[in-house]
Amino acid sequence: VQAPEYEVELLTRIFKKLRERPPLSLREDFCGTALLCAEWVESKQGRTALGVDIDQSVLDWGIKNNLAKIGEPGERIQLLTKDVRSAIPGAFDVCVAFNFSYWYFQERDVMLKYFQGVRKGLVKDGLFFLDAYGGYESHEPSLTDDPRKCKGFTYLWEQDKVDPINNTVTNHIHFEFPDGTKLKNAFTYHWRFWSLLELKELLLEAGFKNVLVYWEDDDDVYRAKKTATNQPSWIVYIVAEK
Question: What is the longest distance spanned by two Cα atoms in the chain?
């Protein structure tokens, strides 16, 4: 579900355009296996990363499978087992919360407090990157009709429940294997479906001076847009400027 090489390139491109310098320090909230941290420090000499996640078992898996082979954690990557809403040490060029992980926070005041904490953890000209998804198909229960073939398994995404009163969703990831076996509900997510306008308003309320939405154009490049035409499904990147 991650594309770390692409996302490091995107973070670098947008940061350079907005700040006219290369970003060097990254804080990855909800980092899971810290795959993005690994790609970040390998992409350019002098880069460092802090990965924050509440689940030590997932961090341990990431150390074994993603970080050990590049000699980390150590000089370039630090991992912190902590709730991202807690005070996180350090100040960073870039903070990210990707894979819609922050949608776990379903109350407005909780999300606001999280955004305020992130802002404090950025350098003076730092940027906060998030992703979000939507489109009219995202509000309908469905099982993907385009399974993703991966090495050794097939990945399926299911939108199970959508509650229009509380604006919450329950989604699952399933795996199918060449021998015919299946792993149902390998991952389950209970999220609030946050609109882009809600997120922009919360980020501004948290003290960010400007919020940009990067929409994917027909040439597969994400560019800042003030308006967009709705589509069956879409994924955007949100950039909040301290």
Answer: 53
pTM of the predicted protein model: 0.94
Chain centre to alpha carbon of residue 16: 20
In the chain, the amino acid numbered 116 is: Q
Alpha carbon 92 to chain centroid, angstroms: 16
* Spatial CA neighbour of 183 closest among 196, 191, 174: 174
Give the 3-state secondary structure of residue 1.
coil
Exposed, middle or buried, 157 (CB in 10 Å: 0-12/13-18/19+)?
A: middle
- Strand stretches in 59-194, DSSP E: 77-81, 92-97, 122-134, 142-143, 148-150, 153-163, 168-176, 182-192
Kind of pairing between the strands at 182-192 and 210-216: unpaired
**DSSP per position, 191-208:** EE---HHHHHHHHHHTT-
**Which of 194, 222, 198 lies closest to 211 in space, CA to CA?**
198
Residue 80 burial (CB count, 10 A): 18
Query: CA–CA separation, 152 vs 148, rounded Å?
Result: 11
Q: Give me the average pLDDT of each 10-residue run along the chain (242 residues).
A: 89 97 98 96 97 97 96 96 96 97 97 98 98 91 74 86 93 90 91 97 98 94 94 95 98
Closest to 215 measured CA to CA, from 115, 103, 134? 134
